[in-house]
Amino acid sequence: MNDTICAIATSQGVGAIAIVRVSGEEAIEIVNSIFKGKDLTKVASHTINYGHIVDNNEIIDEVLVSVMKSPKTFTTEDVVEINTHGGIAPTNRVLELLLEKGCRLAEPGEFTKRAFLNGRIDLLEAEAVMDMIDSKTETQRKMAANQIDGKTSNLINELRDDMVQIISNINVNIDYPEYDDVDIITNDLLIPKITKLKEKIKRILKESENGKIIKEGIKTSIIGRPNVGKSSLLNALLQEDKAIVTNIAGTTRDIVEGQISINGILLNMIDTAGIRETEDIIEAIGVEKSLKIMDEADLILFMLNNNEELSKDIKELLEKISNKKYLILINKIDLDSKLDRNELKVDKDKIIELSITENKGIDELKEKIVELFNLNELETKNPTYLSNSRSISILKRCLNRVEDIEKALKEDMPIDMIELDIKSIWEELGTINGSTYEEELLDEMFSRFCLGK
Question: Can you tell me the distance from the alpha carbon of 405 to that of 427, in angstroms, rounded to the nearest whole number?
């Protein structure tokens, strides 16, 4: 990390301004060598300086240059940001000059990686930087802001502090058994401490389900037979003609996707091919995809036709979704009813009657989704959750190991052996916020960042 890196930090394209970012020991000196204006090596830190970028006395662009000196910068190194006009040609020419003068082109996420390695932020805060960039709703933004601010990291730090206390108590007993004023740690005294730790982890994991919903949205599949109105429902929710709608059965042969936001939570809507037996090879592939998507969905909107009797295959599918989150939508209530509601072996509170052509029932559907996922509560809370799969999977492993320790204590396993297991879990928890880490993990994680961040 001794070299000086540079990259374009704004999206490529035509705009009012673009920013070229430079970080490293020689950042100020290198930029100063192509800058005509004040001597940047002598200006005060955190100042903006007007001038021109020049190459052999040729003016490349009129710029504003921000100079931020170590250690009070994002990377804790000297950082210079060149604000150029937002054309592709001037921005690329400034970048080329920097590379000619000794900078190295930054790898994706390398500025944030340096901030982590230099102790400016932890791993959870680093991941939240990309979450902030990717955020599409106000709730996603709030959650990312809390994670950047370190509030989510505090959840993990508190767990590790609890474990340090347990380890310290055990060590005092093992190393200084002669001290009379030290409480003797027995299995019976240790079990409540481990149980309390287990419950804390469980609570964090439970709340992290909300975090995953906020970050990734709710994968919502619209399922039903051909011509029940699935594509019409998708179009009504998106308020655009996303899916082709006809009276011909089997019009939708592949999945059609779209997104809507309800109470700050994204619904990733998937309109699937109508489920029926068919000899059409392409339609059959679409039906197979529909069944697969139904299994993977967080929410199933199962549509029925008020004008059709309930078929045997639909009854079988309704049994399959009983253990998932679902809503039953009976469409075309403006037509004569042939559907016997008594045949529906589902929670009657989850049945919504629609007439998409008359715009009836859409608002009720949205309200039911809010109720089903407690979205009102999520919107009003200040979200502080683990939200990425990496952290959640590590915490789940730690929970399993804590439960094993609890069981071992009840079976009178020696405390000195228990101590080794607790230390190992403490180290694994550290991989969530980067207190302990492997270089391969960092390379993989930061490679997903955008260039210049």
Answer: 16
Last residue of a domain, one of 359, 380, 401: 380
Please tell me whether residues 149 and 231 are part of one structural domain. no
CATH code of 113's domain: 3.30.1360.120
pTM: 0.69
Q: Tokens 């309930």 appear where?
A: 310
What confidence tens digit (pLDDT) does each residue in 157-185 have?
999 998 888 888 777 665 555 444 445 56
Please check whether residues 234 and 314 belong to one and the same domain: yes
The answer to whether residues 222 and 209 belong to one domain is no
Residue 280 forms part of a structural domain: yes
Residue type at position 25: E
Which pLDDT does position 245 carry in this prediction? Answer: 44
Backbone angles phi, psi at 45, to 5 degrees: -70, 150
Q: Is residue 185 part of a domain?
A: yes
Last residue of a domain, one of 360, 380, 400: 380
Q: Give the Cα-Cα-Cα angle 308, 312, 317 (nearest 5 degrees).
A: 100
**Contact present, 140 and 131 (Cβ < 8 Å):** yes
Q: Which domain holds residue 227?
A: 216-380
pLDDT digit string, tens, across residues 194-252 = 999 999 999 999 888 878 788 888 888 888 777 788 788 888 888 765 444 444 444 44
Q: If you search the block for the tokens 């009102």, which residue do you land on?
A: 376
299 shares its domain with 406 = no
Q: What is the pLDDT of residue 126?
A: 86
Q: Give the neighbor-by-neighbor strand order of the sheet with 299-305.
A: 256-262, 265-271, 218-224, 299-305, 326-331, 351-353
Give the lowest-confidence range in 61-70, 383-392, 405-414: 383-392
Q: Residues 104, 188: one domain?
A: no
Which pLDDT value is given to residue 38?
A: 95
**Tokens at 280, concatenated:** 């059409």
Structural domains counted in the chain: 3
Q: Which of 43-57, 188-202, 248-262, 307-321 has the lowest mean pLDDT?
A: 248-262
Whether residue 287 is predicted with pLDDT greater than 80 in this model: the reply is no
Structure tokens belonging to residue 256: 């059609």
User: Do 156 and 261 lie in a common domain?
Assistant: no
pLDDT mean across residues, the chain:
82
CA distance 276 to 245: 18
State whether 292 and 400 are in the same domain.
no
Instruction: Name the DSSP class of 355.
Output: B
Amino acid 216 reads E
Q: From CA 64, how far away is CA 18, in angstroms rounded?
A: 11
Q: Decide: residue 371, CB within 10 A, 0-12 exposed, 13-18 middle, 19+ buried.
A: exposed
Check: CB of residue 106 under 8 Å from CB of residue 8: no
Residues 286 and 374 in one domain: yes
